[in-house]
Amino acid sequence: xxxxxxxxxxxxxxxxxxxxxxxxxxxxxxxxxxxxxxxxxxxxxxxxxxxxxxxxxxxxxxxxxxxxxxxxxxxxxxxxxxxxxxxxxxxxxxxxxxxxxxxxxxxxxxxxxxxxxxxxxxxxxxxxxxxxxxxxxxxxxxxxxxxxxxxxxxxxxxxxxxxxxxxxxx
Length: 170
Prior knowledge:
The protein is an alpha/beta fold. It has one domain: 2-Layer Sandwich (Nucleotidyltransferase, domain 5). The chain is about 45% helix and about 20% strand. The protein has helices spanning about 5-15, 60-75, 90-105, 120-130, 135-165; strands spanning about 1-5, 25-30, 35-40, 45-55, 75-80, 115-120. Strands 1-6-5-2-3-4 form a six-stranded mixed β-sheet. Strand 2 (about 25-30) and strand 3 (about 35-40) form a beta hairpin. The longest helix has 29 residues, at about 135-165. It is globular. The two termini are about 30 Å apart. The model has no long low-confidence stretch (mean pLDDT about 85). Keywords: Cytoplasm, Hydrolase, Nuclease, Ribosome biogenesis. One of its GO terms (molecular function) is hydrolase activity. InterPro entries: RNaseH-like_sf, YqgF, YqgF/RNaseH-like_dom, YqgF/RNaseH-like_dom_sf. This is YqgF/RNase H-like domain-containing protein.
């Protein structure tokens, strides 16, 4: 896995020789679960995908799951939610960094690029959306993780597309 700057991720996908650029996978990394979202083929809209159970003993299995998702959805990069500016919550920063490092060490995603995107308000946004639905707590947690990944990925796509579309023509 290789880190790239946020705009480079979309720029690289657009510059690829493929007729359609690869899609992006959004990740909301938590202590117990990793929420996943996928972009549409044009990288304009994020949709909820799944939630993976996260344990220290299953990182190899998770890496295999990511390998399969990369192939199945033609994923060109990962957009990982990162707690920028959360000065009081160092644990969240450590959680994300440790997860990415563990994934990288499996060497199953060598060619996959990733970038970090601010996740600060994603969980709060989702909480406000789900509250009126009065879901069962287990169902709410699963939905919350997936939808937080959607918020992270959608905010990245909106920003990146806006920047790409406002660059001066050559």
